[in-house]
Amino acid sequence: MSRVIACLALLLLLAIPALGKPPVDGDPVAELERVYLEALAKLFTWCRGVHLNATADAVARELLEFDPDHEKARRWFGYKQRHGRWVQADGPKSRKDRNRAAKKSYPARRRERVDGLVDRYWEVYEALQGEQAEADRRRLRAIAVDRWPQDARFRKAGGEVQRGGLWILEESARSDGVYERLRRVAKRLLVAAPEPAEAMPPPILLPFGLDWRGASRCGGITVVSATSHHESDRVAQHCAVAVKLFQLIFGVQTELPPDFTVALGSGEADYRKVLSNAGLPEAIRKRLQHQSGFTLQEPPLLFASPSDAAHRLDGAVRKTFDLLREKTFGDFGRLGWAREGFGTFLTWLVCGTRLSSFGALNVPTRSSTGRGASRQLGDSWCAGARRLATRGELPELTYLLAMDHDAMKSDHLLAAYAFAVYLVTGRPGQVQRFLSKTNNGRNTPDASREVLAMDLLDLEERFARWLEECH
Predict the structure, then answer these.
(1) Is 164 within the bounds of a domain?
(2) Of 225, 227, 203, which is closest to residue 215 (Cα–Cα)?
(3) CA distance 323 to 330
(4) Which residue from 26, 67, 392, 436 has the fewest beta carbons nearer than 10 Å?
(5) In a 3-state reduction of DSSP, which class is residue 96?
(6) Looking at the DSSP assignment, which residues form a beta bridge with residue 79?
(7) d(CA 310, CA 287)
(8) Is the CB of residue 129 less than 8 Å from the CB of residue 2?
(9) Alpha helices by DSSP H, 67-199
(10) Containing structural domain, residue 222
(11) Are residues 62 and 89 in the same domain?
């Protein structure tokens, strides 16, 4: 029904020339294009009649872009029909405009007879309403932007703004400098963080059999270290800052459980010692047999024992963000894009590193997502994602947003990381609702339509363009 109404409105808008011809399959966009083609053909005929031959060449090429079988344009370039195919009997000719007065009047005539149709395109665009008409609106907008790139109405309707004479996505304009500003905010929060207080290792750590050399508490988080009191202080401060930064970015007041504890071994030897301790609960032993770090829900506990301090700090902050995300938006299950994308990005803001990946990628230095990738890409993983997009290798969002965590490789991590940056910096007012709607991946396409007002294919297109404009 909406298409029929739009088509009737179009016929009225186009007035007398269109009344004698029915709409093309009830398609308002095709009807507009037919009228535009007729106007272009009339301009071509006028150019030939006043001896603007070079200009007629240009208009004829436009006609052939519309209709490769346009007879007058084909014959103008010396083509003839043979056995149902166009064959160029004569070679291309070099033609010149031979009427100065007509040449001078051509721009005004084109604006009036052809380019002036942009106003009618806009009127039809506004008349198309409802979900069923959205595809027509999208198609009409793409045609208009390509044909009249400086028309602000269609640009703004497509979510673009003008910066320095260029039209860019609203997300790109919002993201400008935010990436770096968030990093500076995290640094300021670290400078302002309170001094950690001394703490006692909780009873749950007694069966581990390790000599805890430091125990600190900051912002309600307890950190114990088998290495030093300096390390427990530093990690506790960074975890407390992670909570503040998470609240700031997502506009929430989520807190960690008051008994949340981070326990840090000093490397492989501590891991083996804990594993071989006879008093260790069997549930914990089984977890350690599958991976070198683990978390418990009750009581909330993180244990990790990488061999270097940078990995221990990165891992503790990463898991802090993971727990905050789960408490705020729910458990994303095996979905890797939310866990890896947001976890890695937020950890980089606080620590300046991207070293940890719990679960299937729990040994960062051996995985495709660990230190090697970080060294290769430097600070900008978004630039790495843009290079993937340039080569046509960026994973499709439809696939990425449904991908199992265990299946992720380095290109998936780069895309997930960049997508998290896109949502946080380019769509700060929508990221919270989008994450809430996509919990466990049940409603990702619906969430995109409901929260971002576009389907996943449109979102993928904007995401790729955002990468190009910002990175």
Answers:
(1) no
(2) 225
(3) 9
(4) 392
(5) coil
(6) 88
(7) 23
(8) yes
(9) 71-76, 100-113, 118-127, 134-147, 152-157, 170-175, 178-192
(10) 193-328
(11) yes
Q: How far is Cα 278 from Cα 173, in angstroms, rounded to an integer? A: 59
SS3 string, 403-428, reads CEHHHCCHHHHHHHHHHHHHHHHHCC
The first and second tokens of residue 353, run together, are 């590193």
Tell me the torsion sign for CA atoms 172, 400, 311, 320: positive
For the chain, what is the domain count?
A: 3
Cβ contact 302:317 at 8 Å? no
What CA–CA distances, in Å, run from 460 to 73, 155, 188, 389, 431?
38, 18, 34, 11, 16
Q: Which tokens is 193 given?
A: 């963080």
Cα separation, 122 vs 115, whole angstroms: 12
Mean pLDDT of 10-22: 40
335 and 302 housed in the same domain:
no
234-257 pLDDT, tens digit each: 999 999 999 999 999 999 999 998
- The whole-angstrom separation of Cα 390 and Cα 387 is 5
> Please, is 254 exposed, middle or buried when counting C-beta atoms within 10 Å of its C-beta (0-12, 13-18, 19+)?
middle
> Over the stretch 182-199, which tens digit does the pLDDT of each residue have?
999 999 999 999 999 999
The whole-angstrom separation of Cα 43 and Cα 119 is 18
Residues whose CB is less than 8 angstroms from the CB of residue 350 and which lie 6 or more positions away in sequence, other chains included: 186, 190, 238, 241, 242, 245, 317
Q: What is the pLDDT of residues 406-464, one digit of tens each?
A: 888 888 989 999 999 999 999 999 999 999 888 755 578 888 888 998 889 899 999 99
Which structure tokens are listed for 66?
């519309």
Number of Cα atoms under 13 Å in the Cβ half of residue 140: 30
Per-residue pLDDT tens digits for 18-45: 333 334 447 889 999 999 999 999 999 9
Q: Is residue 181 part of a domain?
A: no
Place of tokens 């896109």: 422
